[in-house]
TrEMBL record:
Occurrences of domain C-methyltransferase (ranges): 246-404
InterPro entries xrefs: Methyltransf_Zn-bd_dom_put, Methyltransf_Zn-bd_dom_put_sf, MeTrfase_14, SAM-dependent_MTases_sf
Any one biological process term the GO annotation gives: methylation
Chain ranges of the Methyltransferase putative zinc binding domain: 6-67
PANTHER family, A to Z: BLL5978 PROTEIN, TRANS-ACONITATE 2-METHYLTRANSFERASE-RELATED
Key words of the record: Methyltransferase, Transferase
Protein name: Class I SAM-dependent methyltransferase
GO molecular function: methyltransferase activity
């Protein structure tokens, strides 16, 4: 059942941010024998809270159903691994970590980030609810607790002697249905003088770049600095610094301490809040106008595919990201228009996209078929994909992204 009250402030949710119709769970890929079965679709309807302006979706499936077995593994993107290694180098220097330090990551996935701390002989612990990807982390030598994170698990870990000098919660906040339980757990697990970093896609960029495809059922909430600050403050945590980073189409990295800590707040925090204010992030009218813009984007997408067919050109997809499934289902793109997509992850190859039933193949299929266009569904990784698959230029092929606007690259 969907939430009718705000996850952050408990006010009633009455105003639509964006209604994308109905959609399957974004990572509910199908096997060949599941294609003849009925597939569940759920309302993909995002609301904006009148009181605190947090954007949020209803909870139609439990986190256990969505995340206990998960097909997303971070290590299949080379640019993402570079981002993780750069983060580790920054953190060791900036937060003065050494072999005596304890680093704990919530939603540690396949150990893509903790492996770099481990290689530098820093104590690590991963917390990851998906048992299949947790096993991949353990194979890398990363101690990993297979569990959902919240106040109860944090208390248990503290009793076992764990507290984090550096606590990491990158790209997980949006996936949390019970925000206050999660934040309470972070507060408990952080050493009195420890530091917490949280990265999340910045709502400001979703608005400015019309990134409607980042709305899917795994994401329960969409944060600005303003709303993240409010949540953390209610649990005795303060944002002392913030960086704008390019990941996921534009993210924020918050540096957070206990309110009791004497660390001063940098001017960057006020600067980002001012930037949000200048772009209407703290005005409800900004959110109510958004859906009109997305209707125009869908017509632009359909015009492009109509052009491709009318010109007798061929087009295939690259990637099978969750955002791609929102994009294809909302725009009504079937396998008649996009006969297949490819993905580097062997865990996704030979499966079918939810809803559209578009097959996922090995990247070599691009070389075999020589398409005129390759549509990059994970547009946030377009540079990496264009560089590693530049060979399509040999036969005159071109790359395409359709978010925020149709671009042939």
């Amino acid at each position: 059942m969907a939430h009718s009250t705000c996850r952050l402030c408990k006010a009633a949710l009455t105003h639509t941010f964006l209604d994308l119709g109905v959609s399957p769970l974004a990572n509910s890929f199908l096997t060949a024998d599941q294609r003849d079965r009925m597939e569940p679709f759920y309302p993909l309807h995002a609301y904006v809270c009148d009181a605190c302006l947090l954007i949020q979706l209803g909870e139609y499936e439990s986190p256990q159903q969505i995340f206990s077995h998960y097909l997303y593994a971070s290590s299949y993107s080379s640019s993402w691994l570079k981002h993780a290694e750069a983060y580790v180098e920054m953190a060791i220097e900036r937060f003065q970590l050494n072999s005596e330090s304890q680093v704990i990551e919530v939603a540690s996935n396949d150990g893509y980030l903790l492996q770099y701390f481990h290689q530098r002989s820093i104590q690590t612990l991963g917390i990851e609810p998906a048992s299949n990807v947790a096993e991949l982390a353990k194979e890398k030598g990363i101690p990993t607790r297979t569990a959902f994170f919240g106040e109860r698990l944090a208390k248990q870990l503290v009793q076992e002697g764990y507290q984090a000098d550096l606590l990491i919660a990158n790209n997980v906040l949006a996936h949390v249905p019970d925000l206050h339980d999660f934040a309470a757990g972070l507060k408990l697990l952080l050493q009195p003088n420890g530091v917490l970093t949280i990265e999340f896609p910045h709502l400001l960029e979703l608005l400015r770049e019309q990134q409607f495809d980042t709305i899917y059922h795994e994401h329960f909430s969409y944060f600005s600095l303003r709303t993240a600050q409010k949540l953390l403050a209610e649990h005795g945590l303060k944002v002392v610094d913030v960086d704008q980073i390019p990941t996921h189409g534009g993210s924020l990295r918050l540096v957070i301490k206990h309110v009791e800590d004497s660390a001063e707040v940098t001017t960057r925090v006020a600067e980002i809040l001012q930037l949000e204010h200048e772009n209407g992030v703290d005005e409800r009218s900004t959110y109510t106008q958004f859906s009109q813009q997305i209707g125009l984007r869908r017509r632009e997408v359909l015009s492009f595919f109509t052009y491709v067919q009318a010109m007798g050109k061929s087009i295939v997809g690259y990637g099978a990201p969750a955002k791609g499934n929102t994009f294809l289902n909302y725009c009504g793109i079937s396998k008649d228009w996009l006969p297949f997509t490819v993905d580097q992850s062997p865990h996704k190859q030979h499966l079918y996209l939810p809803g559209t039933r578009i097959p996922i193949k090995h990247p070599d299929e691009i070389k075999r078929t020589n398409p005129d266009y390759v549509l990059i569904l994970p547009w946030n990784l377009k540079q990496e994909i264009m560089e590693s698959h530049a060979y399509i230029r040999d036969w005159g092929g071109q790359f395409v992204v359709l978010i925020p606007h149709a671009q042939v690259l």
